[in-house]
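[User]
If only I could read backbone structure tokens as easily as an amino acid sequence. I have put the entry right below:
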Amino acid sequence: MQFSVIYSADTPEDVDVLDFAPPQVEELWDETEDDGQYEYGYLEGRWENGSHRKWCAVLSREQFDEFTQKCGLFAEDVQTMGSIGAPGFGYGWSPAISFTSDESDAILSAYVTPLPEVEKEHFDDRDWDRVRDAMLAVYA
């Protein structure tokens, strides 16, 4: 199985956002946003002038496990509206599972779309529910 991932990291001004970069960032990931898209300036104190990065990649299971472990990410049991422009899907919409972290020095989040290696013409809601439940069982 592969995983299409959109990952963002935001840090306060006294923390280097690159400390929260995914593993093998230069080899596997495309940076799609930088400090120009920082949205937490409304927070007081050290968060006012923080940093932002967003990266996208398609990862193997081994790479995905390394990524979630290094970044301290876990799946959230919440419904999402999905991803737009997820890696491997072009500019279209794809279902996604939300991942977050308990990190106090960063706001970390990822939208993950698992890419099952199954020969099937059409995936329906029931198929997605099974994939989502399996992801939650492993990564929540």
Summary: The CA atoms of residues 50 and 135 lie 32 Å apart.
